[in-house]
Amino acid sequence: MPTAKVNGVSLYYEVTGEGFPLVFSHEFAGTYKSWEPQVRFFSRRYQVITYNHRGFPPSEVPEETNAYSQDILVEDLYQLLRHLGIREAYVAGCSMGGNIALNFGLAHPEMTRALIIVATGAGTTDREIFQTKLEDMARQVEREGWRAVAERYAYEPNRVQLWRKDPRGWREFVDELAAHSAEGSARIIREVILKRPPISALELKLKELKIPALIMVGDEDDMCLAPALIMKQHMPGAGLLVFPQAGHAINLEEPDIFNRAVLDFLTAVEAGKWVVR
């Protein structure tokens, strides 16, 4: 089991394929396994790196609350890439992982060849409702454990699309979520997700981020639509792709469309055809 001791914790990671590095950062309800459709596709021509954030077994689950923050997770990714000898990469992330990818690009633009930001920015709008809902979830997970909560969570309005399109994939998602650490998830909610700045607070920084970026969002992922537009409007190198009748986990819901769109984006970047204004 490959692990790297970085930034004070052990992180589980996998490297598949050869070529220019492409790293995928997973969402709160996922793991490195959430990117399996992308690993199988992109490892044909890229070196694909997937990993679990701290708080997500088999990565380490620190007990101290001060061992968690968005900045810490960004630093984890930075140190993992340095551990692997990677000086520059394509950096992709979904939801919480999308925030990590975006803020990695802001902190380390010299290491970021391009960004792929998926279903990112929940909590930017309707912030009080979002905060109340997430705190309730943290309490549920602490009280009942993920095995009792996972299936209910997977029927959320922006999650049910996966069940509708791919029942087998949805069941795999639920089973993986049920195995998460309740303690780690509660700390991630309170110390990372609820304390990270909304996308709207990053507008001035986004204007200075002159990196090719593909923003991807489902049209039924209500919490992430407005943040996607903000990123498109303020990032000089951003393009926006909206998936029809799609929810939050669009890389799992529509893997063929997702993979083709990302491949076309990377091909354009490599050919110098993606516009950065």
Overview of the structural elements:
By secondary structure, this protein is an alpha/beta fold. It has a single domain (3-270), classed as Rossmann fold. It has helices spanning 36-42, 70-83, 96-107, 127-144, 146-153, 160-165, 167-178, 182-193, 203-207, 222-234, 250-253, 255-270; strands spanning 3-6, 9-16, 21-25, 47-51, 89-94, 112-118, 213-218, 238-243. The chain has an 8-stranded mixed beta sheet with strand order 1-2-4-3-5-6-7-8, with helices on both faces. Strand 1 and strand 2 form a beta hairpin. Helix 4 runs antiparallel to helix 5 and helix 4 (127-144) packs antiparallel against helix 8. The protein starts with a strand and ends in a 7-residue tail after the last helix.
Percent of residues in β-strands? 15-25%
Strand order in space, largest sheet: 1-2-4-3-5-6-7-8
Helix amount: 40-55%
**Main beta sheet:** 8 strands, mixed
**What count of helical segments does DSSP give?**
12
Distance N terminus to C terminus? 43 Å
Helix-strand makeup class: alpha/beta
Number of domains: 1
CATH topology: Rossmann fold
What's the total count of β strands?
8
Q: Quote the average pLDDT.
A: 97
Low-confidence stretches: none
Order of helices and strands: EEEHEHEHEHHHHHHEHEHH
For the record, what is the CATH homologous superfamily label? Alpha/Beta hydrolase fold, catalytic domain
Gyration radius, in Å: 17 Å
Assign the CATH class: Alpha Beta
The outline comes out as globular
> Architecture in CATH?
3-Layer(aba) Sandwich
How would you concisely characterize the structure shown here?
By secondary structure, the protein is an alpha/beta fold. The chain has helices at 36-42, 70-83, 96-107, 127-144, 146-153, 160-165, 167-178, 182-193, 203-207, 222-234, 250-253, 255-270; strands at residues 3-6, 9-16, 21-25, 47-51, 89-94, 112-118, 213-218, 238-243.
